Each structure stands twice: as structure tokens, then as C-alpha cells.
Amino acid sequence: MIRFDSVTHAYSKTARPALVDVDVEIAKGEFVFLVGPSGSGKSTFLRLVFKEETPSKGSVFVAGRDVGRLSSWKVPALRRQIGVVFQDFRLLPNKTVLQNVAFALEVIGKPRSTVKKVVPEVLELVGLSGKENRMPDELSGGEQQRVAIARAFVNRPAILLADEPTGNLDPTTSVGIMRLLDRINRTGTTIVMATHDDDVVDQMRKRVVELDGGRVVRDQSRGVYGYTR
Ligand SMILES: Nc1ncnc2c1ncn2[C@@H]1O[C@H](COP(=O)(O)OP(=O)(O)OP(=O)(O)O)[C@@H](O)[C@H]1O
């Protein structure tokens, strides 16, 4: 589903590369944690999948396509296959829970009847039924992240990328978010999650890819967090 083929990426010609000669293959339906010290290249890895950045060398394949060579008019179609969740939720503050999730479908031109049907379904899936009309600032951090996950998943993308999704949450709330991501993964969605959350990684026992200085230094199935910060 995702393949990095000798990928090196530098943000500028003079900068030290953020990723160096990375070879990673992620199959459809896998759940992968990206771990590593701050600045090791985790977010850069995710940005390359999403084509927010294009590799300086090597190729990134998503669903069989070399995303570095994708023409710009095809990028929206690529991004429709990928949901993204961030540490800071990034909800639209002036829209309700329902409107935040519906908006993700409206911008890609889904008919109103589809929006009306699928938004309540996904809000039920993430455990937010009954809170449809709240504003983001009337929700807890965990609930806000559930809205963000609903928004990322409402279009049923093949891939969900999560950059430190539990970074702003307390441990108990984080467990709930991880259960939700696990449930989404069980529907067949491939998940790649960058994290510093050692408890989460150790509890889930999924594949762990560790980066250090932009290089892959460990790739372990049913892995643990495995290094001290
Ligand atoms: N937009 C950018 N422009 C220039 N350099 C960048 C940019 N984003 C990241 N970098 C550099 O690339 C390297 C990798 O950064 P990246 O954000 O991928 O690391 P990370 O592992 O996600 O870190 P953290 O855990 O702190 O989020 C770092 O040296 C960083 O300073």
C-alpha cells in the first residue's frame, strides 16, 4: 500500500537530509508505529506519503503509484485516499461537530444525501452520537480528537496517517483514542502513526519502525517503543 524505495529527502540543498536512504514497505491493512527522537524524520515520512513534500531522491509509492511523479492535478485524488490526523486536532472552530465532519465530504463534492447518511454513521463509530451540535471548544481534548478522526475517516480512505494523535491527551484518554484507531484499522484501513507515546506503543504491540537521524534503525513486528528519550 505504501513503499519507500531508497528515499532521501532534504528540505533544502544545504540542509542535512531529514530522511536518508529509507526502504520501507507497508502492506494493506497494516498498523505501523513510527518512533524515534525529535527531528528523526517521522513527520517528514508522513508528509512524503501525502505528497506535501516530494523526495529529493528515490521513490514513494502509494497504492502502486509513484507519488513523486504524480502530476499536480492528480494530487487531490491521491489525498482522497488518505486521511490525516494531527496532535493539535485542527478543527474548524466556528463549525459544529457535525459541520466539521460534513465539510470534509462537501469539499470533495459528495451529494447532500450521502453527507446526511454517512456523517451520523461515522459520528456513531467514533462515539460522539448526541454531541453533533457542540462547538469544538465545548468538547474535551479526547472528544476533539474523535471529531478529527471522524473527519479523516468519513470518506473511508485506504490509509490513515496520524502524527502524534495522543500527544495532547492524558493516558486514559489516549487509550480510548487507540481503541478507536484499532477499530478503524480492523476495517482494513492501513494506519501509520508517528508517536513519542511509549505506553501506547508498548500496549498495542504493532509493527514498529524506528528512525534516527533520518535512517531506519529498527523495523520490528509486534514491537515495543524500545528507546529512552
Ligand atoms: N519545513 C521544514 N523545513 C526545513 N526543515 C525541516 C522542515 N520540517 C522538518 N525539518 C527538519 O527535518 C528534520 C526532521 O524533522 P521531522 O519533523 O520529520 O522530525 P520528527 O521526527 O517528526 O520530529 P518530532 O518528533 O519533533 O515531531 C529535522 O532536522 C527538522 O529540523
UniProtKB/TrEMBL annotation:
GO terms for molecular function: ATP binding. Residues 2-228 form the ABC transporter domain. The keyword Aminoacyl-tRNA synthetase does not apply. Gene3D superfamilies: P-loop containing nucleotide triphosphate hydrolases. Its main location: membrane. Keywords: ATP-binding, Cell cycle, Cell division, Cell membrane, Membrane, Nucleotide-binding. Pfam families: ABC_tran (PF00005). The keyword Metal-binding does not apply. InterPro entries: AAA+_ATPase, ABC_transporter-like_ATP-bd, ABC_transporter-like_CS, ABC_transpr_LolD-like, Cell_div_FtsE, P-loop_NTPase. It is a peripheral membrane protein. GO terms for biological process: cell division. It comes from the Bacteria. Part of the ABC transporter FtsEX involved in cellular division. Belongs to the ABC transporter superfamily. This is Cell division ATP-binding protein FtsE. It comes from Motilibacter deserti.
